[in-house]
Amino acid sequence: MKKIPTKIEGVYIIESDCYGDNRGWFMETYNEAKFHEMGIDTVFVQDNLSYSAVKGTLRGLHYQRAPHSQAKLVRCIRGKVIDVAVDIRKGSPTYGEWTSCELSEENKRMFYIPKGMAHGFLALSDEVLFQYKCDELYNKESEGSIRYDDPTVNVDWGSLLNGIEPVLSEKDRIAPTIEDCNANFVYEG
User: Fold this and answer.
1) 32 three-state secondary structure
2) What average pLDDT does this structure show over 34-52?
3) Beta strands of 116-158 (E only): which ranges?
4) b/e 20-42 (16+ beta carbons within 10 angstroms → b)
5) Which pTM value belongs to this model?
6) Which CATH architecture has domain 43-186?
7) Given 30, 68, 95, 132, the catalytic residue
8) What SS3 state is found at 141?
9) Where are the beta strands (DSSP E) in 22-160?
10) Angstrom distance (rounded) from CA 62 to CA 181
11) Is 132 a catalytic residue?
């Protein structure tokens, strides 16, 4: 297993060894001891799976406020997505900045997103299955979101959408900007 840093402190691309032969392939998607060796001490307590039927489906940018904030380990097990993490920790040197990673069934990469991030993804194919490991249970009263097209954050969805209108939930369509959201994260760097 290999941890690749991104421009945002604590956000990592995770690559796992994949062993294949004439039958197919095998890989570890999570190993607590190996994650600890890489300096990721998160204990996961909930797994989620989402399905997006059509290319252009955009989910996010979501978070849960403290004390129910979530660190996530995400991966795409069918199809292809661009996955995005936005730093919403007030006082962070990268506050309001985003980083991304393409996740697909072919590249088998994972994306580790610590607490204090808003998270979302865009389906780059039809028939996307997306898996999340979370270190806190879902708490509806703590959920928050940021507009996917917030001009301050300026995630470059446009080139990825290739001129098509994103498929959004109503919650994501009316989400506030980063300046108006109710996130309560503080950078402790």
Assistant:
1) helix
2) 97
3) 117-123, 128-134, 143-145
4) eeeeeeeeeeeeeeebeeeebeb
5) 0.95
6) Sandwich (2.60)
7) 132
8) helix
9) 24-27, 46-52, 58-64, 72-78, 80-87, 89-90, 98-104, 110-113, 117-123, 128-134, 143-145
10) 11
11) yes
Residue written as token pair 């307590």: 45
127-169 pLDDT per residue, tens: 999 999 999 999 999 999 999 999 999 999 877 777 788 999 9
State the catalytic residue, choosing from 12, 62, 63, 148. Answer: 62
Burial per residue of 53-83, b for 16 or more beta-carbon CB atoms within 10 angstroms, e otherwise: eebbbbbbbbbbbeebbbbbbbbbeebbbbb
Question: Would residue 63 show up in a list of annotated catalytic residues for this protein?
Answer: no
Q: Give the span between the Cα atoms of 111 and 27, in whole angstroms.
A: 16
Query: At residue 40, what is the residue type?
Result: I
Q: Which two tokens stand for residue 96?
A: 């309001």
- What is the distance of C-alpha 172 from the center of its chain? 15
- Please give the structure tokens belonging to residue 77: 């097990």
Q: Grade residue 180 by pLDDT with cuts at 50, 70 and 90.
A: very high
The amino acid present at 150, given as its one-letter code, is: D
